[in-house]
Predict the structure.
Amino acid sequence: MKPHITIHDIAEMCHVSTATVSRALNGKPGIGTARREQIIKRARALGYVPDATAQSMRSRRTDCVYIVMYSGPGNGEPLLQLPPHEVFESMLGVSVRTHVLSVHDDLVEDLKQIEATYAPLLFVVFGPCLTDSWKFSSLTTPLLFVLSDDAPEGRPAVVSDDFDGALGVTESLFDAGHQRITLISDSADGKRVNYEHRIEGFREALRRHGMRFDPSMLSTITIDFGDYLESSQEELKKALHPLLREDGLSNGYERPTAVFVLSDFLALTLLKVVWNAGMRVPKDISLAGFGGWTMTKYAPVTLRTWTQPRADLVTVAGTAVSCLIRSKPFPKTLELPTQHPDGSYGTAIAVTPTTLMVPGFLRTGESVATIAAPPIE
């Protein structure tokens, strides 16, 4: 059986955009006669047959991909600085637009408005969703989630190497002499703890150092994602008080010397809470995060965090978008362009048929002090 030929295949072979192919095959203006004839000839040679069902479903779709992300707290800039649209457009052959919203906005409601107005081919959500997963079912436009730790399960996604990253961050804290480390995660409902694979990476680091994981090492705060900043600050204040008491923890553990927060978004909020409490990082306590978000540059000290190079992220996200709009499977592996601090180059891998994982590296920052580690009893 011959494979089904789509306009995306024709566009690739003719080195034009899908919009140009659509104009040629549907007799629309905006394309030269010679180019139109070339595309029609190639389509006939390939045995192209329009998919009536797909045409019906996509009759109002525009050749546009919408990149959506939240702004950083208080500054209005996107959480992740992306390259100009031209970079993505040259990779994808479609137009690209960006929509930046504040943490107080409703992501799904914004997407609904964009969907009704522009009917894009695809939404690409960069960073946290900060909304209930079930709400996305009300959208008809396909979605790709990029570094969205709270993304709905089963949706196409580009993810970070959570286990290895958390393992690497924790090992770096051990290398700096820290053995009393508190882990902080969050939850939307007080039941399901986020960042499961990062927690497992932390536990593996403890195991390698002959230490037992105790549930009291993990502090989980429940956050109202509709009011993220205010909610997270209040909950972190509650979590911080017993952790930093001068007389130690009531459960017998000594006061921690380092806190590993499993999200940069949350780590920056904790940094503010610590600062307002009259303490300084890393003088009074060391702090590490996860994510490498652009907003960390606004911190009083640069944060130690696990990060993915922007060029690698763009390469993998662009590949995933291209596959989705062309109805093609994700590649099993993808070589990446950025050289890591150790001289190596990363390789993205498909951990599931719809999930690509991007390897990262440790950014040391200034938020972790080197101390003389006390003996473990």
